[in-house]
Amino acid sequence: MILKRWLYYLVKLRNKIFFPFFILYIILAAFVIYWLEPHTFESFITSVYWVLTTLATVGFGDYAPVTNPGKVYTIILYITGIALVSVFIGKIIDSVYFIDKLKVGGKMKYTGKNHIILIGWSSKSRLAIDEILKSDKKIDIVIIDVLEKAPLINERLHYVHGDATNEEILLNANLPKAMGVIIFADQITQDNYATKDPLLVDGKTLLIATAITTVEEKFNKEIHVTAEVINQCHIPLFKHVKVDEFIPTQEMISHAAVRSLFSPGVTSMYSELMSTQYGEAMFEIPKQAEWLTYRDAFVDLLNKGATLVADRGDLHINQKLDDKIPENAQLFVICDKDTLSQIKVK
């Protein structure tokens, strides 16, 4: 009855009490056998090794008590310690299961940095994840949504459950240390309420952008924010929040559809430019010191297999080749990844 009550008490102990107790038990057990038989166990480390192999029921036999007190102590160690190890292993398994449950359920804080935050789960965010994983082999992705569990399982993918308009949820995704945020239009609102009230979809995006701006100002951080806007006429409403770029979905689809009629195959070109899966794509490159004018950059890049197409949003590079390149230029080229790596290495 005493042993049963003792074991029951051990099971009920909280992890924060039990784990230090287990370590202390190992140290004391090793000290006692070392004190009883110092000639058999040459050092304290040796006695710790013997206690662990004994409690784990491995029993290599390289060390064993030779005196009667040592043998009696070993019997006591068997009776008490093996049960203790069983409880210890059980608690380890429970802890791993609990942590995994928290991670899948989006209850754990993300502590990394230079990651990308995707807000809102949909087929579009799934495609964005595939694109990010292919574009960069190291960057992590954090999804914020209200799903009960993580929509995808990947070692570089993390899930935070909650409302993205809540500052605490944004901090759980470690927004202040993020490289950028993409806000996707809420799919449920879009499917169920967009036809009844078109303001609802972009209105929710605006609330999320406002919450992000609040966190940026609070932590004095600059984070690149891209937002999907369903109706282009709503873009001016975002002028009071910090959104760097917009994706006017309906406008882009309509434009691509019309251009495909007048220029068959143009949609394939759009797809190649927007994705890295086709070999060549659009990339940002740093300005080289020897490039004084756009012509210098254009000719040098062309010789390397790349085509200079824009400086920030300016697509009229070919009309001002002799203009000087500003120091804050943001140059974009079309090339493959091998060419891009050669340009950046230089």
Automatic annotation (TrEMBL):
It holds the Pfam family TrkA_N. Its main location: membrane. The keyword Ion transport applies. It is found in: Cell membrane. GO terms for biological process: monoatomic ion transmembrane transport. The keyword Zinc does not apply. Residues 113-248 form the RCK N-terminal domain. It is a multi-pass membrane protein. InterPro entries: K_chnl_dom, NAD(P)-bd_dom_sf, RCK_N, Trk_Ktr_HKT_K-transport. The chain crosses the membrane at residues 17-36, 48-66, 72-99. Keywords: Ion channel, Ion transport, Membrane, Transmembrane, Transmembrane helix, Transport. This is Potassium channel family protein. It comes from Bacillus salipaludis. The lineage of its organism: Bacteria, Bacillati, Bacillota, Bacilli, Bacillales.
